[in-house]
């Protein structure tokens, strides 16, 4: 509904904002009015818009005059790939640090980890991205500063996911291309992962502290289990279940950070395309881009809930009995 209402809020004609056809003739405008049901009431217009969206018809880009659905199919996998890698980095670093902080609760280690996480959360992503390029790319020359892969490698577009397309290709330089793609994704993914890492530190710390205070942990101690057995066999897996339910919530924040990072690192994803569309006043692309990103985040939330229910029997309710 919000995406549909944007066509009425943008300046200009509603039909042009929906279709993207800037130079349509009077006969084409008449056909578009009938196509989008603009001769009828607002409810029928909304139903027609839903029908077009479900059929994959997102209109034409005002800037390129190409179908937006084709552009999104090419660009969305790049954003998904970058976001998933950044999320994995954030979880791989943030969760263990949070567990260590909880185990060393109210000690120097705990205070240092919390201080560093607060500092990392406070750094603006656009400044951190430029600093990373200046230090790791220009200064040390360790990592590339832009793009997904070097222009020397020609990888055929199959799925849109760079690593999968490289593995599916018949290129004799497949493994060199894979290393090059990995080098390109490390820097932007790490920049995106900084803020979610600090949040995972706090979430995992709170979850572990809560688990260590439960009665079954005290019972395990009274049975004579060692501290390492209690942590790795009982506390860690129960704390992880509490963290998984928050992954979907953090993913929306991660996508927002990724949009800014894509511009800084010239990453050819949907976030960079959407920001460029805002500068170009490409209203059709803005409308469709927001809709696609929202659906992507929504799907991640659903998958997270399924994973949480699969790992936590208590979340499945009384369906399976006692």
Quick overview of this protein structure:
Helix content is 72%, strand content 0%.
| Most strands sheet | none
Whole-Å distance between the termini? 43 Å
Calculate the mean pLDDT score and round it: 83
What share of the residues lie within helices?
over 70%
Strand content: under 5%
Count helical runs.
14
CATH class (first level) name of the largest domain:
Mainly Alpha
Low-pLDDT windows of residues: none
**H/E series:** HHHHHHHHHHHHHH
| Cα-atom radius of gyration | 24 Å
CATH topology description of the largest domain: MetI-like fold
CATH superfamily assignment of the largest domain? MetI-like
Number of strands: 0
Number of domains: 2
What class would the helix/strand composition place it in? mainly alpha
Cα shape: globular
What is the CATH architecture term of the largest domain? Orthogonal Bundle
Primary descriptors:
322 residues, mainly alpha, MetI-like fold, globular, transmembrane, membrane, MetI-like_sf
Which helices and strands appear, and what pairs or packs with what?
Blueprint: H1 2-9, H2 14-19, H3 26-35, H4 42-54, H5 68-103, H6 108-122, H7 125-139, H8 162-168, H9 174-212, H10 215-222, H11 227-244, H12 247-264, H13 270-279, H14 283-311
Helix pairs in contact: 1-14, 5-6, 5-9, 5-12, 6-9, 7-9, 7-12, 8-9, 9-11, 9-12, 12-13, 12-14, 13-14
């Amino acid at each position: 509904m919000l995406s549909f209402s944007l066509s009425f809020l943008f300046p200009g004609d509603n039909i042009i904002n929906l279709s993207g056809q800037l130079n349509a003739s009077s006969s084409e405008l008449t056909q578009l009015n009938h196509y989008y049901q603009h001769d009828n009431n607002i409810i029928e217009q909304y139903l027609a818009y839903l029908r077009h969206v479900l059929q994959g018809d997102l209109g034409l880009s005002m800037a390129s005059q190409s179908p937006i659905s084709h552009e999104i199919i090419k660009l969305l996998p790049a954003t998904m790939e970058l976001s998933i890698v950044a999320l994995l980095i954030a979880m791989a670093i943030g969760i263990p640090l949070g567990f260590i902080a909880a185990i060393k609760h109210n000690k120097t280690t705990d205070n240092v980890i919390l201080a560093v996480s607060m500092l990392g959360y406070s750094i603006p992503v656009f400044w951190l991205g430029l600093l990373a390029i200046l230090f790791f790319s220009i200064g040390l020359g360790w990592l590339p500063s832009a793009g997904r892969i070097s222009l020397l490698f020609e990888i055929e577009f199959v799925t849109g996911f760079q690593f999968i397309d490289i593995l599916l290709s018949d290129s004799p330089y497949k493994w060199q291309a894979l290393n090059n793609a990995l080098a390109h994704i490390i820097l932007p993914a790490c920049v995106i992962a900084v803020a979610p890492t600090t949040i995972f530190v706090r979430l995992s710390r709170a979850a572990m502290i809560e688990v260590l205070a439960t009665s079954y942990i005290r019972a395990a101690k009274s049975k004579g289990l060692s501290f390492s057995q209690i942590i790795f066999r009982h506390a860690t897996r129960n704390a992880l279940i509490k963290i998984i339910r928050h992954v979907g919530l953090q993913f929306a924040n991660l996508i927002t950070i990724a949009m800014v990072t894509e511009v800084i690192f010239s990453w050819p994803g949907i976030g960079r395309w959407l920001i460029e569309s805002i500068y170009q006043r490409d209203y059709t692309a803005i409308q469709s881009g927001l809709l696609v990103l929202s659906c992507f985040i929504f799907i991640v939330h659903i998958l997270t809930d399924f994973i949480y229910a699969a790992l936590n029997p208590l979340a499945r309710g009384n369906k399976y009995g006692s």
